[in-house]
Design brief:
Elements: H1 2-20, E1 30-37, H2 43-64, E2 69-74, E3 83-89, H3 92-109, E4 125-132
Antiparallel strand pairs: 1-3, 1-4, 2-3
Length: 145
């Protein structure tokens, strides 16, 4: 918890500087990645849990504009962090609001999950990273959208 608080405070201090370095097209999008070291036997259950409970809510938040994208990706060739959960949001504040809203809606619709261990309970390690998106090959949205 302390590491997360330090990271958030550091981003609050560095964020405005990073934003000033961007083009005048507005603030950059935010990419959040939570990475987990999970037993291979848990991966399909994690994916099923996400697909059943979280993805429908995140689909709604994409439609509402609160998130731009979200999902899971899995280890093919990399380090020990074999399960990764990403969210792309229009801003840092928007990311934190979306995370809270996902939690609220999932719990509201599935109260039996509120006191449960969660889908990542069997995972041995976890880390979070938040990035400002930079140049990419993604097509720019058409004017007026």
């Amino acid at each position: 918890m302390t590491r997360s608080l330090v990271a958030i405070l550091a981003l609050a201090l560095v964020g405005p500087t990073a934003l000033q370095a961007q083009d005048d097209d507005g603030p950059p999008q935010i990419l959040s990645i939570s990475s987990y070291v999970c037993p291979q036997s848990a991966v399909s259950d994690i994916a099923e849990n996400y697909d059943t409970y979280t993805r429908p809510v995140e689909d709604e938040l994409v439609t509402e504009g609160m998130l731009l994208s979200a999902g899971l990706f899995f280890h093919a060739w990399a380090d020990e962090y074999n399960v990764n959960y990403y969210r792309v949001a229009p801003s840092m504040e928007g990311l934190f609001e979306a995370v809270a809203e996902v939690g609220r809606r999932v719990t509201e619709r599935n109260p039996e999950l509120a006191d449960g261990p969660g889908p990542f309970a069997d995972c041995a390690a976890h880390k979070d990273n938040i990035y400002f998106m930079g140049p990419s090959t993604e097509a720019e949205p058409p004017e007026g959208t």
